[in-house]
Amino acid sequence: MSYPYELDGKTLWDAGSESGRLYFSLTRGAAEHIQLPTGLTHIDRLGGCDIELSTFRVFVEGLYDSYSRTNSDVLQGLWRGLLVTSLVLLDMAGSSIALSAEHEEALRSDMASFGCSMGAPNWRQYSS
Question: Which of 10, 57, 84, 99 could form a disulfide with 104 if both were Cys (CB 3.0 to 4.6 A apart)?
């Protein structure tokens, strides 16, 4: 069973049912916290999500801003998995956001690992 994330009818991430549903739930909680829409819409017929790219990009920028602004290791840890998954999904959609030099190496390393697991065709580009 899968939980596909689609953009314009093309499946970007064919997530497993559990990971896809959990990611969707986490984005909704984060969206409430940062007060931004996710750009993800649940599709009953697919059991997955449609991505509205411009809104999703702004959402990912908001996640990164929240991740970058905190001095709390706990908060950074809580943000990190959601952020990395979102960065890979955004890249799979053909978009990206700028990462500061302070975070780029560590996030790109995680993106390589996540990207491989998420089926990103160019996941190797994230590793140095």
Answer: 99
